[in-house]
Amino acid sequence: MKIAILPGDGIGTEIVAEAIKVLQALDLSLTMETAPVGGAAYESHGHPLPESTLQLAKDADAILFGAVGDWKYDTLERSLRPEQAILGLRKHLGLFANFRPAICYEQLVNASSLKPELISGLDILIIRELTGDIYFGQPRGRRTATDGHFPGAEEAFDTMRYSRPEIERIAHVAFQAARTRKAAGSEGRVTSVDKANVLETFQFWKDVVTEVGQSYPDIALDHMYVDNAAMQLVKQPKRFDVVVTGNMFGDILSDEASMLTGSIGMLPSASLNSRNQGLYEPSHGSAPDIAGQGIANPLATILSAAMMLRFSLQQPEAAARIEKAVDTVLSQGLRTPDIYSAGTTKVSTREMGDAVVKALG
Ligand code: NAD
Ligand code: IPM
Ligand code: MN
Does any ligand 2 atom lie closer than 6 A to the CB of residue 83? Predict the structure, then answer.
């Protein structure tokens, strides 16, 4: 089993190092090969997603990704910015289905800024479409009087777009996930989030999801406008089971949902293509504000590695071992600063990774 390791920028390198430690401690026969991506690759290769990195990712059974981005690249032309690396990987590998499970560990009910009773026992799954929408619409660009860069621009535009097959396949993923979860005791509900009251693209989204839903009579389907969904997520998050939505709304709602788990440092993700090849990354970014200080929470990345073992590498027992070890270290009271609360023990990124390794048993 070959894993491409793409640490990236900022805290990406720090958190991925901890996930690697955990994977190595499992004694599986994994081959890991590391390549630069994002700002780091721009520095070494002049491009955020060098051909050699893309090839490594394509050839791997799975990809473990840290994060990319730094404010110092914000003035580069868009095609050279670090964020293009993750967008390019998603597009080139066809990773259209993004799973972001928001699970509140009981030990962290006090770490969230929300009332404990709202989030205690929470287990919802956000499924974000990842290779369409306004992120990849054409045409896009900036009209300028002089055809120059920022100065002199008259207007800018990005186009929101979804095709029927794109909506159908992500809807099927959502209904099937709801079915699997129902078998394990969840409600069996898909909430499709849209903005059909304003946007043609999302009226179409709603129509197609409704059609697909007819083949899943065992799963309840409801529809919600994205503004209401943003509100309901903090008002009564446990009313949700599986949430399916487009690329842009899913980006925003999943960051919001991360606070239901206590911290964005707790939210893992899996991005899968139709061949079950996957890229696994925390839902957060490179956190330049805390990079290099050894205080980033590595658990979202470690939990992403567990998702990798389950979804792409057919190692469910190893995945469960990691998840159980995370549960154990939280029960031991170990906390990086983002999930710290009175009465617990503050640890560094590395100490948290070491503790998870130890807890693997
Ligand atoms: P961010 O997710 O990097 O950080 C937001 C806030 O959350 C910051 O205060 C940060 O310190 C905190 N945070 C994030 N991860 C944490 C962790 N593991 N432990 C503790 N605290 C954590 O979002 P941002 O600041 O808006 O973006 C920074 C850069 O990251 C930008 O360049 C952005 O484009 C990029 N980004 C990349 C990805 C990705 O690689 N997939 C995802 C999101 C943002
Ligand atoms: C994420 C990030 C990315 C996105 C950026 C860095 C391109 O925010 O993975 O959630 O918007 O998809
Ligand atoms: Mn995001």
Answer: yes
Measured in whole angstroms, the distance separating CA 321 from the mean position of its chain's CA atoms is 21
Instruction: Name the residue of 63, 286, 293 to mutate for ligand 1: max ligand atoms within 8 A of Cβ.
Output: 286
Q: Tell me if 23 is assigned to some domain.
A: yes
The reply to whether 92 and 154 lie within a common domain is: no
Dump pLDDT digits (tens) for 229-287. 999 999 999 999 999 999 999 999 999 999 999 999 999 999 999 998 999 999 999 99
Percent composition of the chain: helix, strand, coil (DSSP 3-state, to 5): 45, 20, 35
Q: Which letter does DSSP use for residue 241 in this model?
A: S
- The answer to whether residue 268 is domain-embedded is no
Q: Which domain holds residue 92?
A: 1-96+273-361
The token pair that represents 119 in the structure block: 């989030």
Q: Are residues 305 and 252 in the same domain?
A: no
Ligand approaching nearest to the C-alpha of 87 = 2
Residue 306 sits in a domain whose CATH number is: 3.40.718.10
Query: How much is the CA Rg of the chain, to the nearest whole Å?
Result: 20
Angle at 223 between CA 200 and CA 216, to 5 degrees: 110
State percent of the chain over pLDDT 70.
98
Ligand number, closest to the Cα atom of 291: 1
Residues 254 and 325 in one domain: no
Parallel/antiparallel/unpaired status of strands 97-103 and 123-129: antiparallel
Indicate if 182 belongs to the active site: no
Provide the number of structural domains found in the chain.
2
Instruction: Quote the CA–CA distance of 326 and 28 in Å, as a whole number.
Output: 19
238 is catalytic: no
pTM summary value: 0.97
Return the half-sphere exposure (C-beta side, CA atoms, 13 A cut-off) of residue 254: 30
Structure tokens at 146: 């002089």
In the residue annotation, 255 being an active-site residue is answered as yes
Measured at the CA of 330, the angle between CA 272 and CA 18, to 5 degrees, comes to 55
For ligand 1, say whether the CB of 285 is within 6 Å of any of its atoms: yes
